[in-house]
Amino acid sequence: MSRPAEISRAAQSTAGVTAASASGLSKLRWLLAAAVVAGVAIAAAAFLTFGSAEGPRERPPANPLDASRAFGYLVEICRLGPRPSGSEGMEKQQEVLVAHFEKHGAQVRLQEFDAAHPLNGQPVRMRNLIASWHPEAERRVLLCCHYDTRPWPDLDPVNPRGTFVGANDGGSGVALFMELAHHLPKLKLPFGVDFVLFDGEELVYGDRGEYFLGSKHFANEYALDPPKHRYVCGVLVDMVGDKQLNLYKEANSLKYAPDVTNSVWRTARRLDVDEFIGRRRHEIQDDHLPLNQIARIPTCDVIDFDYGPQYSPHWHTTRDVPENCSGESLAKVGYVLLEWLAEDVPVGKSE
Ligand SMILES: [Zn+2]
To answer: How far is the CA of 202 from the centre of ligand 1 (A)?
Structure first.
């Protein structure tokens, strides 16, 4: 598979070698070369400042997200241990998150329901966690992820019944939202924002169990018992902590929510976040399907599915741990989401 980020890094280091080998040039020639480079740089800066034929191009704001703090949240969440639906680790996680989002000014509620345990049929208490910013707004945007972890690391070649802490698969969305909670209160938006953390995305043991229990419940409630507020659109994040982040436009997102998908990738291009690659790749079943199909909320999935078995050894294995994730990746995705909320949400368009 191609990894454009690696290719461009390789190209840069080749250029470095060429420059170093030219050290025998005379001082005068170096000065001349430096002057030409400086001239080009000044011209480029003037072009960026005063704009092209398409009009002025504003410099994007710096990324306000704190990558190391985001990574710290990922470590904190994974230290709670495995967090499958109904587990002790999940209950501890809920306590941490309710306190965290409330501390930063969100209104938090738990949407509860029971699901049958796939192995013994006993009821498992499920809780979707909803943190609302500007809860009074009736027009809202949904940012969501799942926060349960798969019970077993089924794809682990050594120990498929071992310990699975789901750093990328489950933890990354949570850590990202914990970091975003520092920034949401500062945004002045014409709509409210809900973080929805779905339970039961994969309460699946081997081939027993059902996916997307939390998002299906959420979508059914929204469709059958409509609340006063309405969601304009949504973005799902899943597996966004990979060190080598590759985020392609996902096929179901383009099918159900093309405006939302394209607007998010446009924001990333504006911010020069190259990890968002403007091509379609992968068709993924994820929590965005119930939102699109049942709740009719146009929602795209921002997912690095190259964190899968054919590309990466970590997915659904005991090696899905924080050491294989990156705070920088979380911060880049958060940067795009924050700027998208501030500037690029396709409000008023119907899909
Ligand atoms: Zn998974």
So the answer is: 6
Identify the CATH number of the domain in which residue 78 sits. 3.40.630.10
Please state the domain count of the chain.
1
Ion ligand 1: residues, CB < 5 A: 150, 169, 202
Cα–Cα distance for residue pair 72/57, rounded to 1 Å: 35
Cα(315) to centroid(ligand 1), Å: 7
Extract the tokens encoding 256.
């159900």
Model confidence over 208-262: pLDDT tens digits?
Answer: 999 999 999 999 999 999 999 999 999 999 999 999 999 999 999 999 999 999 9
266 alpha carbon – ligand 1 mean position (Å): 27
Question: Quick check: 189 pLDDT over 80?
Answer: yes
Residue 215 and residue 144 in contact, taking contact as beta carbons nearer than 8 Å: yes
293 C-alpha vs ligand 1 centroid, how far in Å? 21
- Residue 203 C-alpha to ligand 1 middle, in angstroms? 10
Specify if 47 maps to a domain: no
The parent domain of residue 255 ranges over 72-344
Answer whether residue 4 shows pLDDT above 50. Answer: no
- Closest residue by Cα to residue 166 from 92, 241, 115: 241
Average pLDDT over residues 286-299: 98
Question: Is residue 46 included in any domain, yes or no?
Answer: no
Q: Residue 183: inside a domain, yes or no? A: yes
Dihedrals phi, psi of 97, to nearest 5 degrees: -75, -40
CA distance 134 to 191: 8
d(C-alpha 169, C-alpha 149), whole Å? 7
Q: Is there a domain that residue 63 lies in?
A: no
Q: Can you tell me the distance from the alpha carbon of 53 to that of 19, in angstroms, rounded to the nearest whole number?
A: 34
CA of 303 to the centre of ligand 1 (A): 11
Sign of the alpha-carbon torsion through 225, 231, 234, 238: negative
DSSP H/E element including 153: none
For the entire predicted model, the pTM comes to: 0.83
